[in-house]
Amino acid sequence: MFLVPFLMVACAAEPEEMETAQPEVPLNPNGDSELALLMRAMYDDAMLVKEQVEAGETPTISVNPQPILTATPSDPESTASPQYKSFARAYIHSVNQLGGATEDVEALYTGMVNTCMSCHTAVCPGPRVRIKKLYLD
Fold first, then answer.
1. How many C-beta atoms surround the C-beta of residue 16 within 10 A?
2. 3-state secondary structure 81-95
3. DSSP tag of 112
């Protein structure tokens, strides 16, 4: 009899009280660049958009891609090239087309992921394995 009220009180605890905050640990031992943090945020957002596309919902883009042209990178030479700038503009364009689209959503989403893969194949290949996870199943 006394167990039910205890469980009700235990389950009513606020989530903030139950969670312990973990400090964010940089993935790069030399610190994370502004561009690396932005790209991680764009990846996380793209995973949410993937779920929306797979569910047949209208995609909502939450992360502004425009700063990929100006964010401080880990390796300044990599983003100084005309090739990087061209890929970045193509990505921004693909995101702008996808956000709020109601037609050809799967094709637009795949095009956006392809722009990620193309740039990372040519400029910074490390994240390609992770980018592959963005493709529709």
1. 7
2. CHHHHHHHHHHHHHH
3. H
Q: For residue 109, how many other CB atoms are within 10 A of its CB?
A: 24
Query: Using CA atoms, how far apart are residues 39 and 45, in angstroms rounded to an integer?
Result: 10
CA–CA distance, 33 with 75 (Å, rounded to integer): 9
DSSP code, position 68? G
100/109 Cα distance (integer angstroms): 11
Q: What pLDDT was estimated at residue 22? A: 44
For 54: left if phi > 0, alpha if psi spans -120 to 50, otherwise beta; the answer is alpha
Taking residues 102-124, what's their average pLDDT?
97
Report pTM: 0.78
DSSP letter (8 states) at residue 115: H
pLDDT tens for residues 12-56?
A: 433 333 344 444 555 665 578 999 999 999 999 999 999 999 999
List C-alpha distances in Å: 28 to 3, 49, 72, 132, 136: 48, 26, 15, 21, 29
